[in-house]
Each structure stands twice: as C-alpha cells, then as structure tokens.
Amino acid sequence: MHGRDFRALLFDVFGTVVDWRRSIIHEGEAIGAHLGIDIDWAAFADAWRGLYQPSMEAVRSGRRPWCRLDDLHRESLLTLLDRFGIDQLAPAQVEQFNRAWHRLDPWPDAVPGLTRLRRRYTLATLSNGNIALLVDLAKRAGLPWDAVLGAETAGCYKPQPEAYLRSADQLGLAPAQCVMVAAHNDDLRTAQGLGFGTAFVCRPTEYGPDQQADLGPEGAWDFVADSLLELAAKMGT
Amino acid sequence: MHGRDFRALLFDVFGTVVDWRRSIIHEGEAIGAHLGIDIDWAAFADAWRGLYQPSMEAVRSGRRPWCRLDDLHRESLLTLLDRFGIDQLAPAQVEQFNRAWHRLDPWPDAVPGLTRLRRRYTLATLSNGNIALLVDLAKRAGLPWDAVLGAETAGCYKPQPEAYLRSADQLGLAPAQCVMVAAHNDDLRTAQGLGFGTAFVCRPTEYGPDQQADLGPEGAWDFVADSLLELAAKMGT
Questions:
Q1: Which of A47, A43, A41 has its CA nearest to residue A28?
Q2: Which residue, of B75, B102, B129, is where some domain finishes?
Q3: Is B135 touching A (CB cutoff 8 A)?
Q4: Best mutation site among A153, A166, A177, A178 for testing chain B: the one with the most B CBs within 10 Å?
Q5: Do B12 and B69 reside in the same domain of the chain?
C-alpha cells in the first residue's frame, strides 16, 4: 500500500498544523485584560469556530457569492461580540482581533516535521483559509510550504471535491500522487473518495480537554501518526 | 519616495530570477548530443521564447479559453520541432524537453538576494508560469517564496491588469504596499500605472550577448539594481 509514488503532501491547516483554539483564547484573554472584559474566552473561541462551517455553507450552497475566510471570520466575530455583550472594541480593534487567525501558533512538532517531510515531498496547504491568512501564518511560524493552495486558489471550500481536485491539478499531479494530511476523518474520507492518499495526524486536544470527535483514525488511512515528526518517520524522511 | 510602507515584493520570474535562455540551450544541447541532432540550440531557445507572447495573446484576447503555460510551451515546442526538422523525439522525450522550463537555473544572486529580502518582506511570484512550473523551479533552485502567485492564480496573463491587481489582493494588500520586481521595463510600466512600487533588476544578457532591449531603466522606477543582492541592500535588508 505504501509503495505508491507519492509526490506531494496537501495539508489541512487549522487544527492539523496550528493550534487555533489555544491561540484564539490567548488573544481573547489579552484583549479582555486590556479592555476589562471578563468572559469565558474558551467559550468564545469555541463559538467562533462553531460558526466556521455554517458561514462557509452559505458559499458552498451558492446562497452567497465567493467570500474569503477573513470576511466570514469577521462576520462571525461581529455576531459573537454582540452575543457575548462586548461593545468595547473600536473598529480597528475588531479588525485586529479578526486577524488573530493570521497569528495562530503551530503545534510544537509542526515546523520540524514539515522541514523533514519537505526534503522528499512537495508540501502545500489545502486549507479553507485565504491566501493572505495562510501566508501570514507561515511567515510568522516558519512553516516551509512550497505552495499555498486551497479554497481561494480553487474557488471553493472543502469538502467540495473541486477544492481537492483543483489543488492536485495545480501542482501538475494526479490525486493518487498526493497525500491529504489532516486531523479530521471527514476531510480524509472526502480525499480518499477522490483517489488521494491519506494521512491522519491525531490532535486529541484541538477542541480542548473534552474533545469528542477525531480522537483516532476512523478509516483505512494510508498513514496514521501522533505528530508530523512521526509522519515524517513513517513516510521515510 | 522610498519612505513608502512596502510589505511585499512580487517577482517576475523568467529572466528576472532565472536564466531561462542558458538553461534551455543546455537542455537542447544535451538532447542533441544524445540523439545526434546538430542544430543551433541558441536559435532554438530564442525561437521558443519568441512564441511565448503570441501564444499567451490568444488567451488574453479571448480567442481561446484559459490554458496554462505548460500547455502553451508544448504547442510552441511541437511547432519548433517541425520547423527545425527534428523528428527524433519520442512523445515522452518531447514531454521531458517541455519540462525543461521547470528546471531553469537561477541567476547566481537570486537565492542569496531573495533570502535577504525575505527577512523583511513577503516574497511572491507574479509570473505567467503556471503553479506546478514555479513550484518545481523553486524547489530545485531553493527559491524561498512565501507564495506562488501569478497567471494561474489570477486567471489571466500579464500584462492584463487583473494579473497584478488580483495578486496584491490575494496577499491582502493594496498595490501601493507591493513592489513589482522585474528585468523588463514594460512589466514595471504596467505595474506602476496600477499603483505598484517598482524595482528594475538589470539582466543585460537575458537574451544573449546581443540583447537590444531592457539594457537599463526606462522609467522612474523606485529601485534600480544590477542584482537581487543589490536590491536587498537598497531596500534596507
């Protein structure tokens, strides 16, 4: 099974490569301390992420035209500031908070793992994040991508098949030459159905200490690892 | 003038960062030695590049739908193999020769210059090359791009304005926050007209020893340099 000639690895980013939840909580706590806002920032982070899929679904379904994730994040943020009763943020502070998604910290194994994998494979994002967000993340954290691909370059959001297929095609590769790397079984299920190789990276605290889903592999994935360093070892790099 | 807050540098690639002519000549000579084909490979390289603008013009004008540069290069190659009376190449060898454009050597100052510039600026391609071509070039030569943008991500070929404007927008930046870097005055002229900063990098042998055009700056460009290392110094990195 692993004798396949994989050439490129395509990475989910939020949760798989970066720890969005802890990063958003820290940004919220810093704003709260600065402005005297005392709320449960973990609940706020979870609620923000909770609006992620519904916001993209409006685009996927065609109910609204293409809209990059920065703009969807901002709409969700405004909804949540209202819901949590936060009215102390000036517009520039709202924008600054929204860009917290450009400043997410990587999991500790991400940079060394990607650095090893890159010796042998082409590494690209296949994320629903927009290009500017992904470039800022990578530059700040030192993520060594060969290409920043995904929703914005494909013109549609995962799990729409075109997001996967166009990304492989843009690399000049067939799906069978690419491995989708994700901490989410549903992402891998879609990719596998399209002919991609699959690698599950277990991130059991992505959603906090009480995470219920994606605690282990739920499919016949080509690779399963607890970190990107372990994946690098399993992929012979 | 240089007090502007530039955040990103957008690079023309063919001629500005890589020495396409010498690289194509070398690939041609190697094929010629292998198959016993004795022609003027410099003339062949120049003819191949000579079909570059006409092939894109068919797309720009709308006479044909979007087509990535690899495919335009292949059509031009088939035309030239016929014109030069070369019929010894099997289809796989034609494909291998076409991919010579994925294996172009950088100018000697490119990697050290880009490495210095990247400390301070976001570096992206703004090339008519397709994504796979640019990723292969970068991976082979060690070009440290933060993002691979250009014709394929914008959906149109330079000098169409959208190629420039969409690339800046995909980085989340205004044109005035970006510097177009090119060895070609016409590329900079278009970019400047759209509000971009401009940097001319002089490559007086891009077209060989008898080069006639682009031997020096022909506009009021923000930066003029003889190499990317000199540009790095002039841009304070």
A1: A41
A2: B102
A3: yes
A4: A153
A5: no
